Amino acid sequence: MNFLLYPFRFLYKIYFASYFIVSLVCFFPFFKFFLSKKERFPTAFKLIRIYAKLWLFFSGIFMKVKGKENIIKNQAFIICSNHSSFIDPACLYSLFDEYFVFTGKQEIEKWPLFHIFYTSGMNILVDRNNRQGILKGFKRMMEVVEKGYPIAIFPEGTVSKEAPKLTDFKTGAVSLAIKNQIPIQAITFTSNWKRLQRKGMFKGKAGPGISTVIIHPAISTLGKTKDDTDSLLAKLRSTINEPLNELYGV
Questions:
Q1: pTM of the predicted model, to two decimals?
Q2: CATH number for position 241
Q3: How many domains does the chain have?
Q4: What whole-number distance in Å separates Cα of residue 158 and Cα of residue 177?
Q5: How far apart are CA 81 and CA 93, in angstroms?
Q6: 133-147 pLDDT per residue, tens
Q7: Cα separation, 165 vs 5, whole angstroms
Q8: 189, 240 in Cβ contact below 8 A?
């Protein structure tokens, strides 16, 4: 029966992509202005939040959040979630009203228009293909944390093609948290993969609906050392995966 849904999924994806492109073109001059100077970054962040909320709304996606009381406030911390859909960044911007910095892969630099969110200097691009690029990105993250700002990192590195199943987690987020003795805010998106799945124009799931988000209690790194990286990474992955396992057996 799934094949009967293919035309609807295809049409939704066409609409989703069209709205994203048109809206980004309309907002681009404002993004360009507010991202042109560091002192304007906080205002740019607020504008991105508005844009993200409008994008979700006009895509027919509405967030249902569990665990809002667990959101960490007024300090540096690491935001980590599963990366199951292209809407995940918009959801994170909608969740957190305090300024934070996003990290992304170097390839974003080549994406038309969208690259401005990373090449302007507000967010951080990391070249994972060479050690020097990784160290450069890590150094910039350290600078952000030292200023007291949170950082959002997708431990999987990219949108999983096997969502809701998690792929392997990279150690960067946990290493950064341990290095600075700051907490990790683990988040699970349980239904974003149904809203827009990374499996091509026809096969992947897509459609309007609820984006269910679970914000877990903070994972402390106080007293942890480099030797605890693997165990803490396993705890982070287990925390994010638990609701997915309950729902989908992954």
A1: 0.94
A2: 3.40.1130
A3: 1
A4: 20
A5: 13
A6: 888 999 999 999 999
A7: 22
A8: no
